[in-house]
Write a structure and sequence with these properties.
Rossmann fold, five-stranded parallel β-sheet, single chain, alpha/beta, 205 residues, two-stranded antiparallel ribbon, Flavodoxin_fold
Length: 205
């Protein structure tokens, strides 16, 4: 878990506590560049930004027995839960693959957003408590598909899953969903514009 590029821990004052989660197994690339640009903008406004790179964590992304039995949480996942509790605002940075979330990010949610941590059912009823309420989120999402096609032809399944059935179910309100697409045919000039946009989003955090 990184807090600054230099490894130093920033002082926590009146700034917002922001946790950035990189949901890709890649150690570099456009997603990381976008996240770093967002963090730069946010830190420039006095916010404290911590980074959690899932590709650098050690954990089994498979929930082997579903929610019927408990599965030992690895130290990195216990630390991730502590960081989520610490944060006021979450930033998820990830690509859309096959119309959905990368398997590593989905596995992270399966293992970390557990009953008793992210939500709690009320007895045997269909009602539940949203245990992560009070937090907000920004989503920085890359796609190869043009956004209009992903939305109107495919129905934006990854966006609905994130905003409604994962974050919304847990009480986290998605504030902004920023698409950076299509990536594959993009020029270097276009990518520089995207980085500038990500930095502006961080300034507005």
């Amino acid at each position: 878990m990184n807090e600054t590029k230099s490894g130093a821990t920033p002082l926590e004052g009146d700034g917002k506590r922001i946790l950035m989660i990189f949901g890709t197994p890649k150690s570099a690339g456009l997603c990381h560049a976008l996240g770093d640009a967002y963090a730069q903008g946010a830190r420039g406004k006095g916010h404290v930004v911590r980074q959690l790179k899932l590709g650098e964590l050690s954990f089994d992304p498979v929930l082997h027995d579903g929610y019927d039995q408990g599965q030992h949480l690895e130290p990195d996942l216990l630390e991730a839960q502590r960081q989520i509790h610490w944060a006021e605002h979450l930033v998820f940075v990830y690509p859309v693959w096959w119309g959905g979330l990368p398997a590593l990010l989905k596995g992270f949610f399966d293992r970390v957003f557990l009953p008793g941590f992210a939500f709690k059912y009320r007895g045997r009823s269909q009602a539940w408590d949203k245990l992560l309420s009070g937090r907000t989120a920004d989503l920085l999402v890359t796609l190869d598909t043009p956004p209009w096609y992903f939305r109107w032809i495919y129905g934006a399944p990854a966006h609905r899953q994130m905003t409604r059935t994962i974050l919304g179910f847990s009480g986290i309100k998605t504030r902004r969903l920023a698409e950076f697409a299509p990536v594959r045919p993009s020029s270097e000039t276009q990518r520089q514009h995207w980085l500038q946009r990500a930095e502006r989003l961080g300034v507005q955090a």
